[in-house]
Design a protein that fits this description.
Layout: H1 2-27, H2 33-44, E1 54-55, E2 61-62, E3 68-69, E4 77-87, E5 92-101, E6 112-126, E7 134-143, E8 154-158
Antiparallel strand pairs: 1-2, 3-4, 4-5, 5-6, 6-7, 7-8
C-alpha cells in the first residue's frame, strides 16, 4: 500500500509540473520566425559603450566597476568597494579602498593592508582592441589617510591598451 501511495504522489507531482510548464508555454507570446531571428541577431551583437571604459586584466571593458585589480600578474594590489561619483567622456572619479599585499616576510605569506583612496581615471583614447570604444589610459590614486610604505601620497599608473 505504501509503495502505491508514493507512486501516486510522484505521478501527481509530475502531472502538476507538466501542467505548469505547459501553461507557461501557452501564455508565452507567439513570435514569428523573422522576429525570433532578428532578436537572435541583436543579442549576438555586442553593445558598444557610449562612455569610456577601463580595461581589466582579462581584456574586458568595464564601466564603473566595484572592484579592479591593479597588479594583474600577482593580484597584490587591487581596488575594492569603489563608489563612482562621476564617469563621463573625459574622466571618472571614485572613492574606495586600495588593498595592497605587504609581502612580509614574502608575498605568499604577506598580509593585505587596506588604504582609503580617491581614484581618478582620465586621458581617454581609442582602445586598440576595439577602436569604436574609448578607454581611460591613466589611473591616479590619492591616498586620503595612510599609504603603503614607499608610495607617494598620489601615484599614477598607465593603463594597458
Amino acid at each position: 500500500m505504501r509503495k502505491l501511495t508514493v507512486r501516486a504522489a510522484l505521478t501527481f507531482c509530475a502531472a502538476v509540473s507538466l501542467a505548469t510548464v505547459m501553461g507557461a508555454a501557452d501564455a508565452a507570446p507567439v513570435t514569428s520566425p523573422r522576429s525570433a531571428h532578428t532578436l537572435a541577431q541583436e543579442s549576438m551583437q555586442p553593445q558598444v559603450p557610449t562612455q569610456p571604459v577601463i580595461v581589466d586584466c582579462f581584456w574586458h571593458p568595464q564601466v564603473e566597476p566595484g572592484n579592479f585589480v591593479l597588479a594583474c600578474g600577482d593580484g597584490n594590489s587591487r581596488l575594492t568597494s569603489l563608489r563612482w561619483s562621476s564617469w563621463d567622456a573625459n574622466s571618472a572619479v571614485a572613492t574606495g579602498i586600495n588593498a595592497v599585499n605587504d609581502c612580509k616576510p614574502y608575498c605568499a605569506a604577506g598580509t593585505f593592508r587596506e588604504y582609503p583612496v580617491t581614484v581618478r581615471l582620465d586621458r581617454p583614447q581609442a582602445w586598440k582592441k576595439n577602436p569604436q570604444i574609448s578607454q581611460y589610459t591613466r589611473l591616479r590614486l590619492s591616498y586620503t589617510d595612510s599609504k603603503p610604505a614607499g608610495y607617494g601620497q598620489t601615484v599614477s599608473y598607465p593603463l594597458w591598451n
